[in-house]
Design goal:
The chain is an all-alpha fold. The chain contains 26 helices and two strands. Helices cover 64% and strands 1% of the residues. Strands 1-2 form a two-stranded parallel ribbon. Helix 22 crosses helix 23 and helix 24 runs parallel beside helix 26.
Length: 617
């Protein structure tokens, strides 16, 4: 009886805490701090998309097809995926669009764009392969071997050995042709080329862009051939007897060929930094990609917006510089702020403190719901020296990866890393990576409208959301000191610069070296960090629009905030929670969800969030 009275008293004490808890979590119930109030998770009618299971099925089948047809640039792979995407286009057209809810229509529009974009990328891949095919004449043979194994065809060992011999011969011939092309180019600069003796290999001339792409494909084909060989070798004694030596020779020749391309054409040198080459896609492809991301502007409009944003940041930087006693010499102020780095070994503690400061700030102002579990599960890992060469700053999510010097770096590398990750520069980026940035959005993505994350996720939503919070917290006074404002403005200028140099590269108006110089001269980057930034932008790790998605996605969210919160139609918290619970998708569809914008079956990008095209503001 006494125990029951004590339990009842506990419930009376706990009840007010539960009732007053604004985030829907039973923080007052012992042992249930992470358990949501289930009634808050019941989806109201019309909030779930009727296409949820269709989208999930599409991604599951696409993944299965990709695991079967996994050889990059293979014509067979492209044929199967074209068939798959066209089939889905036809099937999608059978749905009655007019009977769908707004959430269902959003998924329909996004599926339509996803399928169109996927087919466009296959066409682009085919064009790129056509350019590289003369450099990779042995590719079709490797494609055929791998495909035959995938079809589980019975192997004829002696014939396989002959194919391997032919692959080796093609590698030898094309390597000689490339060397001849280089020699002919050298000769033509000094005198007229001599007639080619009968039977001598025809010279092959290759641009650096195609050579760089082809070198990576040589490595990929080499790995595909090894996987094929390892499947049989040792398990089939007759295969090993016939194929071992031809395979080893072909593999060795491909290794030497890869080195020839890198050293003779691309200029790679042992012990020296790798040259940055990249693969520009051109204006038409940029516009196609923008439309598939539901961005209505052209590249020139985006560059103009970036220049406007850069000018604003530079003006604010001068204000902060004056407060610090440097007048308009904001680069001197930035240098001073960079010098206030923490000692080696103290960076993790700085990250922990800055993360807690950001959460406290946004919760005190009731800006967004932060579930207790999200606050408790994030972790810190230190980045390897190799990774820091291409990622000199933080990477984030549930795990924030910290870039800071290791004892194996040179003295200059250590200083550049510490200066580039000083406390005041980190003040504006820790919350970008954790809460309310990437960690919070990833946490919510996996719990609300989760089908959209894999199918419709876009850097304009992912990076745009995190950068938007840098803008909002600036407006809210989060950067209270001039030092913190300098740090925040450095990153804001950096994001504007990303648009300018990445579009400049893909439009053919800026080289990688010019991009590095721009980051150093106009933004104030350490040169090593600028090189790492440009390297990661152009070496194929990120898609062409990724670097401009930070600022453009952020500006889209900012414009939507002004439209809905600035007008009083929504509170900050309701606005941010609705975005997080809507799932990952292009920001124009976030707007369509929040304002119930009319949607059509063939909806195209139309939201001009910075004024009319050709006259942006």
């Amino acid at each position: 009886m006494a125990r029951r009275r004590f339990a009842a008293m506990l419930l009376l004490v706990a009840a007010p805490a539960m009732a007053q808890n604004p985030d829907g979590f039973q923080a007052g119930v012992d042992g249930a701090r992470y358990v949501p109030v289930l009634n808050t998770l019941l989806a109201p009618s019309g909030t779930e998309s009727e296409l949820r299971d269709i989208v999930t099925r599409f991604k599951a089948d696409e993944g299965a097809l990709g695991r079967r047809w996994n050889v990059e640039y293979s014509p067979g792979r492209r044929a199967r995926f074209r068939e798959y995407y066209r089939g889905w286009q036809a099937a999608l057209g059978t749905l009655d669009f007019d009977r769908l809810s707004q959430q269902g229509r959003i998924d329909y529009v996004l599926m339509n764009h996803t399928l169109r974009n996927a087919l466009s990328l296959l066409d682009r891949e085919e064009r790129m392969w056509t350019e590289s095919a003369p450099v990779l004449p042995f590719g079709s043979d490797i494609f055929a071997l791998v495909d035959a194994r995938r079809r589980m065809e019975k192997l004829e060992p002696q014939q396989a050995a002959l194919t391997l011999v032919a692959i080796g011969k093609k590698v030898e011939d094309v390597s000689r042709a490339i060397v001849a092309g280089l020699q002919q180019a050298d000769t033509s600069r000094t005198r007229s080329p001599a007639p080619r003796p009968e039977g001598e290999v025809a010279p092959l001339k290759v641009s650096k862009v195609v050579a760089h792409r082809s070198a990576e494909l040589v490595n990929a084909l080499k790995a595909d051939l090894k996987s094929w060989y390892d499947f049989y070798a040792g398990y089939d004694p007759l295969f090993t007897w016939w194929a071992r030596d031809p395979y080893r020779r072909a593999d060795s020749l491909m290794t030497a060929y890869y080195r020839t391309i890198r050293e003779r054409i691309l200029g790679f040198r042992q012990g020296q930094p790798d040259p940055i080459i990249g693969d520009p896609i051109g204006r038409d492809a940029i516009i196609a990609d923008l439309r598939d991301e539901l961005i209505a502007y052209d590249p020139e409009d985006l560059v103009k917006i970036a220049e406007i944003e850069f000018a604003w940041s530079e003006a604010e930087m001068k204000k902060a510089s004056r407060e610090l006693g440097f007048g308009d010499n904001w680069k001197a102020a930035l240098d001073k702020v960079k010098e206030r780095y923490v000692a080696p070994g103290e960076q993790p503690e700085l990250i922990r403190r800055l993360a807690a400061e950001a959460v406290e700030f946004i919760e005190a102002r009731d800006l967004v719901t932060v579930p207790p579990l999200a606050k408790d599960i994030w972790r810190i890992e230190m980045m390897s020296p190799e990774r820091q060469r291409v990622s000199p700053f933080f990477l984030g999510g549930e795990v924030i990866q910290v870039s800071y010097p290791t004892d194996g770096m040179t003295h200059e590398e250590k200083l550049m890393s510490m200066r580039g990750n000083s406390p005041h520069l980190s003040h504006a980026t820790v919350h970008h990576e954790l809460i309310p940035g990437h960690h919070l959005q990833g946490f919510m993505n996996s719990r609300y409208q989760a089908h959209r994350r894999a199918a419709f996720g876009t850097p304009f939503w992912t990076e745009g959301w995190a950068l938007y919070w840098e803008m909002l917290l600036w407006d809210q006074g989060f950067n209270a000191t001039p030092e913190d404002r300098v740090g925040a403005l450095f990153w804001r200028m950096h994001r504007s610069a990303r648009i300018i140099f990445s579009l400049g590269f893909h439009l053919g108006t800026m080289t990688p070296q010019q991009a590095i110089d721009y980051l150093v001269d106009r933004v104030g980057h350490e040169r090593a960090n600028a090189e790492a930034e440009v390297r990661r932008s152009f070496l194929g790790t990120y898609p062409p629009l990724y670097q401009l998605a930070y600022m453009m996605g952020g500006l889209q969210f900012r414009s939507l905030h002004q439209e809905l919160v600035g007008s009083g139609r929504m509170t900050n918290k309701a606005f941010h929670d609705a975005i997080l619970r809507g799932g990952a998708m292009p920001v124009e569809m976030v707007r369509a969800m929040l304002i119930e914008a009319p949607l059509t079956r063939d909806y195209q990008a139309q939201w001009l969030y910075r004024g009319p095209k050709g006259n942006v503001r």
